[in-house]
Predict the structure.
Amino acid sequence: MNYTEKQKRRQESILSKIKQFRLFDDEFMSKVFEDDIEATEFLLRIILQRDDLTVTESKGQFSIKNLQGRSVRLDIKAKDKEGKLYNIEVQRADEGAGSKRARYNSAILDCNSLMPGESIENLPETYIIFITEHDVLGCGLPLYHIERTIKENNMTFDDKAHIIYVNGEFTDDSDIGKLMHDFSCADPSEMKYKLLAEKTGRFKNDAKGEKQMSKLWEDFLKEEREDEREEIAMNMLEDGSFSTIKIAELTKLSEARVQELAEDLKATAASR
């Protein structure tokens, strides 16, 4: 098989994978909603059961760093006209939607919401929304709203931080049920909401959209390989038997990146 044939077969394989993508695949979902204010507003209005919400910003695969430099990548970060912030995450794996992950994402939004010296009173209202393929909380409800309460009298502790879980297994004829049905669809023609069908169709049935998704998939595979090399480097650093130069040579990472990983490892050990 020559190089051209290999490239053609590889491209056919990528396009086949694109056809199988669903909105429950976070890389695909982020691309579909990326910079699309109309689609993000549509999604939030259904989840929040509001028809008066106006989205002004929507970004997909948005990276934020904490004070120690550790970054978290949000599937969608959005803002409405009232200044409220929304982090929408899609999770196929149950362990990716745990309570501490929700807490961490909420904290990350808070820490990056204020300028130095700005009053705490200016903290925006935030919503952390997990759309999960399975009913991770296990009560059979379409939506789970998590709010802080005062234990002694069950009053709401109104800190303006909200967490919502959307149960992907709930697919009845309600608005949420139809939305979750569409998130489960690989074929846009089977979707119930026209807006979502049209938008996903652009990435599956349009040459320009397919090209965008092909690049996204190539980038994703590249990142996966990079993550694997960094994990190997971290294991070698923990072992302590290898120099940073040798680790860089064996993992094909830059010496600067290995040094960064070593510093991260030291910082983690010091915080324990």
